[in-house]
Amino acid sequence: MNPYHQKRTVFGVDFSGAQDAGRKIWISCGGILDDVILISECFPAKDLPGSGQRRDPSIRALRAFIRKKRDSVFGLDFPFGIPHALVEEGSWEEWVGAFPDRYTSPEVFKALCQAASKRGELKRVTDVEAKTPFSPYNLRLYRQTYFGVRDLLRPLIREKAVCVLPLQKPQDARPWVIEICPASTLKTENLSSPYKGSGRDRRAAREKILRRMEKTGMLKVEKTSVRKRIIEDRGGDALDSVIAAYATFKALNHGLASDTSLPYAIEGWVYV
To answer: Which of 25, 126, 217, 255 makes an SS bond possible with 45, Cβ 3.0 to 4.6 Å?
Structure first.
């Protein structure tokens, strides 16, 4: 790993566009020591300063949190873009800037994308390559995409408070932000199995996934209390944030390799 990269703290964020996003968004944090990410914290967004259960204050608090972590890299699990064929702007930054005027609500976003695609839901090239489960405007994902782009990424980009990679060039004094997908990471690691839910089997699956990630030698959970919180979270959001941190660390470890030619320069890149 590049020694400079080792100076960055890694954050994995399991994002949500739900009304009670403060409860559903989870954040994992880890430092890097000897090419291992040491997970030291795992908590919901409602625990951030100035946050709460509702979507607007929790995303606002997450935005403030990211802004302050200059020597960090954040892996966020929502689409940063849409298929190139549906973009009218000349660049990704222009598309993000025009986003709230073009798409005045999540429903308008979904409807316009569906109408423009004409032949069902389109995926980005990176979605196909990373084997993500859904199109960015799929029924299960469109709110996450909408509020992630409009309320989290766009304000940070307008303030020049972050560098969104590989769509923007990295700068030393700003947090780096990348797109990840826990489901794709689990597929890559051959760890896919049902783990969300309250049953004993689902709890065992969460524990197994966490243990298998640790056996790679790339991740370690430092505290018993943090481990318990990850495994006991029935929704699987805490574990998803750890998987997000793991994927982010892997990307950092590989030098954040990507393709910045078209269509990736418009659609974005999913790191797995």
So the answer is: 25
Contact between residue 140 and residue 13 where contact means Cβ atoms under 8 Å apart: no
- Write the CATH number of the domain with boundaries 5-81+126-133+161-271: 3.30.420
Structural domain boundaries in the chain: 5-81+126-133+161-271
Q: Which residues contact 81 (CB under 8 A, 6 or more apart)?
A: 87, 92, 95, 124, 136, 167, 266, 267, 268
Pair 49, 112: CB distance under 8 Å = no
Q: Which residue has the tokens 């389109």?
A: 122
pLDDT < 70 stretches in the chain: 1-6
**Is the peptide bond between 106 and the residue preceding it cis, with omega within 30 degrees of 0?**
no
pTM of the predicted model as reported, rounded to 2 decimal places: 0.96
d(CA 182, CA 272): 8
Rounded Cα–Cα distance for residues 200 and 204 (Å)? 6
